[in-house]
Task: structure prediction
Amino acid sequence: MNRRARAASKPVLDESRFQRAVTQLPPRFTPEELRDVMTSENDPLVCLELFNWASKQHRFRHDVSTYHIAIQRLGEAKMYEEMDHIVNQVLAVPSIGSEALFNSMIYYFTEARKLTRAVMIYKHMLNSRKLDCRPSIKTYNILFAALLSRRNNSYINHMYMDTIRSLFKQMVDNGIEPDIFSLNTMIKGYVLSLHVNDALRVFHQMGVVYQCQPNSFSYDYLIHGLCAQGRTKNAKEIYDKMKCKAFIPSSKSYNSLVNSLALGGEVDEAVKFMWEMNENRRTIDFITFRTVIDEVCRQTSVKDAIGLLKELQNKDIIDGLTHSKLLCELEDDVHNLNVRNRYRFHAAWTLIYVGVAKKYLVFHGNER
Result:
């Protein structure tokens, strides 16, 4: 049924549009003229049909430009099976190829989650005798971005980090200087795979080993990673360096820092950073509000927590709905805290009662 549904959903070639495109070509057209017609044509099926039709014309040979536009059109339309067929044609002719063409192949294969195929194209570039077909910094960055787009699963990122590390080493060994994107990729990859110390090592090499200074993303990844491991002191040090560079942390970094401070017992510092977030127009998420309110209630008093909640509403930092939800959460927390305290009180008196009863029985038992 799935095969039938896919077959039924496949687009149908517009014959009249295809014929109209053919009439735009002169009798003995060149690859450049075919490329221009294919570029002006938005329908990927018409482009594919033009490409295949031109292949059958006497004395015509496709060049890099016609292969490139065909792969681009099919890749953009997610027609990966048809694109793969044209890629195989390119790989079968050693004289055909360019860095830009191979980079497009790698990009669209990564978009299709065909990483094995993308790596195969990369290896083909490495083994190419043509210098203009060798991998560039752009090639590596496409692969880095694809390998890091495996969601926020630390186990998967840990597995892919070995591949990223190996690619990075090959890039440096081939004499390609890393740029800010590739270095930030290493930092982000190490953070996501829970190797924060390795991320710090790359960060400290920036501007020293590599001729590239950290940007706001470099600091953001580190602050988030350090806070996730409860290393709030180190995160504040990175924040101070970031502030010296006149960078403003992202909402994600700020929220991580505020939550980490609050949970670490530094509620006053957490509240200070929360006001700073608002001044810098960064979004404070609901979890951060709740964490700070809960910790103020637990570490100081319910009165202070309610006062903070009221101040947040008066300054229009939270709306009425969020205020109501936070107030309900606070009331539930206070109720649960009272229940736990009563339970502890009764448990303590039960232990005392049991102890007294035992002594009574022992004493009167001895009398008997």
User: Anything to note?
Assistant: Residues 177 and 210 are 7 Å apart (CA to CA). The radius of gyration is 32 Å. The chain is about 75% helix and 0% strand.
